[in-house]
Amino acid sequence: MSGEARSEVLEVIRNDDGVRCRVDAAVVMDDHVHVLATFAHRVPSAKLVHGWKSISSHRLCKLARSAPLWQAEYYLRWLADPVAVAACTAYIRANPARRWPGVVSYPWLLP
Questions:
Q1: Do you find a cis peptide bond into 68, omega within 30 degrees of 0?
Q2: In sequence order, which ranges of the chain are alpha helices (DSSP H)?
Q3: How far is CA 68 from the centre of its chain?
Q4: Tens-binned pLDDT, residue by residue, of the chain (111 aa)
Q5: Which helix (H) or strand (E) holds 33?
Q6: Measured between alpha carbons, how far is 10 from 34 in angstroms, rounded to an integer?
Q7: H or E segment to which residue 26 belongs
Q8: Phi and psi at residue 80, in whole multiples of 5°?
Q9: What is the number of alpha carbons within 13 Å of residue 102 lying toward its C-beta?
Q10: pTM as predicted
């Protein structure tokens, strides 16, 4: 996924922050995305993820990509323990450095 495409995907996720969810951490890699979010009341996770995939797919197809862009499934894990949330946040933030050792600044990382 190009830098421009990663920016589009991150922007779609960022646009939901404070609206349908609170995004605690997110990273858009070249071949996958991680998002740690607290869902707003009555917003099903499937609806939120579908929205992210749909909107970003429409945007990316305008950048000369072709559909389908996303796999149909996604992995969902519910975290209640603050220690698990902290570990997940650290994992997401460290993802670029694990993939590309030596990366100091990665622009497609929230927050």
A1: yes
A2: 3-16, 45-61, 82-99
A3: 17
A4: 889 999 999 999 999 999 999 999 999 999 999 999 998 778 888 999 999 999 999 999 888 777 788 888 899 999 999 999 999 999 999 999 999 999 989 999 998
A5: strand 33-39
A6: 10
A7: strand 21-28
A8: -115, -30
A9: 0
A10: 0.90
